[in-house]
Amino acid sequence: MPNYLTDNLNQSVFLDINYLDVLGHNTFEYSLYKLLTETLDLSEFHQRYKNSNVGRKAYPPELLLRVIFYAYYRGVTSSRSIGRLCKTDLKFMALAENRQPHFATIADFVSGHCVDY
Q1: What is the chain's Cα-based Rg?
Q2: Are 109 and 64 in contact (CB under 8 A)?
Q3: Would 52 be classed as within a structural domain?
Q4: How far apart, in whole angstroms, are the C-alpha atoms of residue 2 and residue 8?
Q5: Is residue 4 part of a domain?
Q6: Average pLDDT over residues 34-50
């Protein structure tokens, strides 16, 4: 009879993950992170937020833009799928700083910043 290692999925595992290492260097994901975090002027997005004294803290526009642009780059356009990927995909988790925006937050952000041509 074969002697196999036993399966045990009912266990806690603590992983030591550096999200910048997950993004890698000289990759599209890393460039997107740097561009939206350090290079572009996103003051137009910041002016729309009116929650300085009341309300829940908002997700930074940089975070939402990173997640949305990366999802679009990968061909994912559904806000529900993007929200799910922020919980299950390491690259999305890294770009979202391990935050998990609700799909409605993502959809509201996209629809609230549409450009009319």
Answers
A1: 18
A2: yes
A3: no
A4: 18
A5: no
A6: 87
Cβ-Cβ contacts under 8 Å for 48 (sequence gap 6 or more): 112
Convert the pLDDT of each residue in 13-39 to its tens digit.
888 999 999 999 999 999 999 999 999
Question: Which domain does 27 fall in, by range?
Answer: 19-40+59-112
Q: What is the DSSP string of the chain?
A: ---PPPP--S--------HHHHH-SSSHHHHHHHIIIIIS--HHHHTT---SSSSPPPPPHHHHHHHHHHHHHTT---HHHHHHHHHH-HHHHHHTTT----HHHHHHHHHHT----
Is residue 90 domain-resident? yes
Structural domain total, the chain: 1
Whether residue 91 is contained in a domain is answered as yes
Mean pLDDT value of segment 54-70: 90
Indicate whether 115 pLDDT > 70: no
pLDDT, greater one: 2 or 73: 73
Q: How far is residue 82's CA from residue 115's CA, in Å, rounded to a whole number?
A: 21
How many other CB atoms are there within 10 angstroms of residue 17's CB atom? 11
